[in-house]
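Re: weekly structure request thread

Next one in the queue (597 aa):
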Amino acid sequence: MAAVRGLGALEGGRFGLVLTELRGRLDLSPAELAVLGTAELSLGAYPEAELHLLRPHLAGEMRATVGYGAVLLEVGRWAQARAHLEGHRAGLSPDWAAEAQQVLATLDLEEGWWARAAERAEAAARDLLALGLERRAAGPLVTMAWACARQGQLARAEGALQIALSVLPEYPDPAERATALATLGWTQAVAGRLTEAQAHLDRASQLLSTEQVQAQRFVWAARADVAAWTGDHAAEQVFVDRVAATLGPLTPPESRWARWVGLRRVALDRRAGQWSRALRALALLPPGAEALWQRGALLADLSEGPAATEALQAALDTFRAQGQTLGEAQTLSTLCRVAAGTPEAPDLARQALDAALRSPLLLPVRAVVDEVSAALAGQPPSAALRAYLDAARTHAQPPAPPPNVQVQTLGGAQVCLAGQPVRAPAALLACLGLCGPLDRATLQLHLYPDRAPAAASSAVKQDIYRCRQALGPQSIVSEGAHHAKRYRLGPAYHWLLDVAEVLRGAASLDPVRAFGGLHGAFLPGVDSDWSRGVQAQVDAALEGMVPALLTVYRRERLGANMGHLVAQFAQAYPEHPRLAEFRTLASGEGSAAVVSQ
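Done, posted below.
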């Protein structure tokens, strides 16, 4: 079977190289035309992608069939996209039928049917996992997580993202990993966990390249949301402008991302008091619940009460039909503002606050509470309404996160509290984190085996004292009678132990986590049976991860990932006795049976 030109570059995320190899050639097979069209789709060149995907779709090329439906989705021809994908899904192979299901889930998301989107995406992921295609299943898992997060199922979203991130590599194509990280950051931010969210959003941005247009748009859109929720409207404007800059002059206003840019610009113009500009932008938007809500809010700003109420009521009906609790709360709070000073205002305020209390999306809920409070400023609320306001204000305040303590043990020892280095013994914290709770005698044996018992006991006491001084008295807690006291890490802290993260990454076959924290040997200054045992555990876990991952990559034909994985292992273990064997397997010369051993 002849090789498909451009396929390797496409799978590696080098879309520009695909265009260089294939564009303008007259001898392309249907499979190669499908590769070219898919690359153009990823770069946002929708007219060219539609042209190059239609012919191979008609010739029965399944990649093109799914890609053509994705183009129709991107350009805003949603009814055609749905009819195309549902009409051809039965004729696709199981893996491409699952990919078509994933595009349909994305379409449901865009139309606001988030529960249905989550169900479709979960089904697509399940089908791909059943086929042994873990890497391809990550895309539907991210879509499922996005749908779950939008409807407030935040724990379910985070669970799906952790599974997806365990199989999504940073090399050679980081686009899907960046999208997953941005989704995770959005999910954490909307729940008020801004510190964790910012780290994931920053990493998502770092992974992007100029060729990752679709991923760029998604990451910038997530960052625009977070900026808006936190009141940083200058940053919001920057991210909206970045997304807009990726849209070509031929991009139709009803396309997926032109809609998003249009809605965000209406909101920004309203906030800045640019009424005429907001009206012009609103006129170009296709119909939808979000556009109706923005129209009603703009008309309310212009004191056009009856017209605003009509638009807002239509938006409210749609949000309720789709089960969008946050949209319902936002629309009701704007209706309350329109009705301020009238007998209807208190009931609308109660409905808005009731919907806000049902939404776990805490940061956007704050704006609802503020708008209702402002609308009721001119009339004293009843006792019941005051209780609703107090409950909503409390609900919108996320609980204070536990302090982060990072314990570095690989390649050096350092402890950081909330990002700042502190003078605390990393060896003691690592010992308790990996093995605790432990009594003092065991700690002496693990940390100071060469010292006399009295000296070792004194050293452990000093270590516990230094930890409590540097991190707080509850950083190490004890339990049991004095003569049998056992020590463990305090539950009031969020402990981040690098060696534990490496071991979890190796166990879950996630090379990003496994190699990301591997900076050298475990606690070079400690020489005990315990420390040598931990080092041996790390070495064995990473050695076992490599052949297992090579099996996965070979099955999914990810040659570039195989080579990169072995290069990472060689950097960490340049003299490892199995390195030559791994290199042979990555080059494709070894047998699959050997890999799986």
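Residues 529-555 form the longest helix (27 residues). The longest strand covers residues 404-408.
Next request, please.
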